[in-house]
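User: Hi! I have a protein structure encoded as tokens and I'd like to know what sequence might fold into it. I'm fairly new to this, so please keep things simple.
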């Protein structure tokens, strides 16, 4: 309970209570906000819940009624669709391709971006600011503009249609944002801390590994989550640069849409599986993600 005290003639007056109306307004206002956010969250989850329930129903039930009918007939739930999914070689192979594309593209962007961000923040070399400005200016280049030129380049050097070509494309377009984010975060590290480590005999690589990386963990985790989600959910780049043997899950599911009436039992669980994996990654690192996003606000 909030009280107000006044000092009158050197003596403390009796504490004044906060008006009852103000207290009720504050409590009701907080409750209304929480209720509103709860409703918004439930509406936000409706498509995900519908996709999950659809993936657990048979094609016949999905054709006969909407997914919400399962609440009246829980016996409709079955895992046969996931069994058929695992028996579909195209889907399982594309899921493996997605992992082979996403993991290297994320690791390379985080590693190279961390090294470049440290160099731009704390190492002196000619034209450092101009080079950083050139890297950041690449953020304004749309992905769509580079698709055809890079596709022609990859065709000439034999990378078109391969997983390596898709990885290199994602790394190239992920690095400008990575360098920009990590350079600004690393620049906030106290200079005295780095100078003390140098006085103790630490070289640049050791300083980067022992001091900068631990302090930059939240920002690196945030970057890794952003890059992972972007690459995992990408379809445009994969649609242009991959062939039948190197397609990720997004392109494989898009090809199933052409036969939607026959493949609904594969499409629904495949779509849910492709969605739940990045969600699991996000929730696994959500604490680091929030720390990295809020780091700039608390400095």
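Assistant: Happy to help. Inverse folding works backwards from shape to sequence: for each of the 299 positions I chose a residue that suits the local structure. Here it is:
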């Amino acid at each position: 309970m909030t009280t107000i005290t006044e000092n009158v003639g050197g003596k403390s007056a009796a504490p004044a209570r906060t008006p009852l109306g103000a207290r009720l307004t504050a409590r009701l206002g907080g409750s209304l906000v929480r209720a509103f956010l709860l409703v918004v969250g439930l509406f936000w989850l409706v498509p995900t819940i519908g996709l999950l329930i659809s993936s657990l129903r048979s094609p016949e039930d999905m054709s006969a009624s909407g997914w919400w009918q399962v609440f009246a007939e829980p016996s409709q739930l079955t895992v046969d669709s996931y069994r058929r999914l695992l028996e579909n070689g195209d889907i399982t192979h594309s899921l493996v391709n997605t992992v082979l594309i996403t993991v290297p593209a994320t690791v390379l962007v985080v590693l190279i971006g961390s090294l470049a961000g440290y160099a731009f923040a704390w190492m002196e070399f000619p034209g450092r600011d101009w080079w950083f400005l050139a890297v950041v200016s690449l953020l304004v280049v749309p992905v769509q503009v580079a698709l055809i030129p890079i596709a022609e380049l990859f065709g000439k050097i034999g990378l078109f249609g391969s997983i390596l070509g898709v990885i290199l494309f994602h790394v190239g377009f992920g690095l400008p944002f990575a360098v920009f984010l990590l350079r600004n975060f690393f620049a906030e590290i106290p200079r005295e801390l780095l100078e003390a480590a140098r006085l103790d005999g630490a070289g640049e690589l050791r300083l980067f590994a022992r001091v900068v990386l631990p302090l930059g963990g939240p920002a690196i985790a945030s970057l890794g989550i952003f890059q992972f989600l972007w690459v995992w959910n990408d379809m445009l780049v994969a649609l242009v640069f991959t062939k039948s043997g190197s397609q990720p899950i997004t392109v494989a599911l898009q090809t199933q849409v052409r036969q939607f009436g026959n493949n609904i039992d594969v499409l629904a669980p495949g779509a849910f599986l492709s969605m739940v994996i990045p969600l699991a990654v996000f929730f696994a690192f959500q604490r680091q993600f929030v720390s990295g996003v809020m780091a700039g606000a608390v400095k």
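A useful reference point when you look it over: The mean pLDDT is 81. Feel free to ask if any position seems puzzling.
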